[in-house]
Design brief:
single chain, about 80 residues, alpha+beta, two-stranded antiparallel sheet, two-stranded antiparallel ribbon
Length: about 80
């Protein structure tokens, strides 16, 4: 479940900047207690919603799951 907390605009900018720099460098980022590596290409959706006196800004980043390569088979012939 996502964790919500109130932070300052400066703290938000710092968090986004640190995350962006790690993504740009190909380093893993910690999101929701998990480490994730972002691939070279992703699908980005930006959304701004306003309702009931609140504004919500969302950045949704998606990419296909990758499977680890299958182990190589070695064949031994007699």
């Amino acid at each position: 479940m996502p964790k919500k907390r109130t932070i300052s605009r400066w703290a938000l900018a710092r968090r986004l900047q640190e995350t962006a720099l790690r993504i740009a460098a190909g380093k893993p980022v910690r999101i929701g207690g998990q480490l994730v590596c972002v691939p070279d290409e992703v699908l980005l959706e930006e959304e701004l919603e306003t309702s009931d006196g609140e504004t919500e800004l969302e950045f949704e980043i998606k990419w296909p799951e990758t499977k680890p390569p299958a182990p190589k088979r070695t064949s031994k012939r007699k």
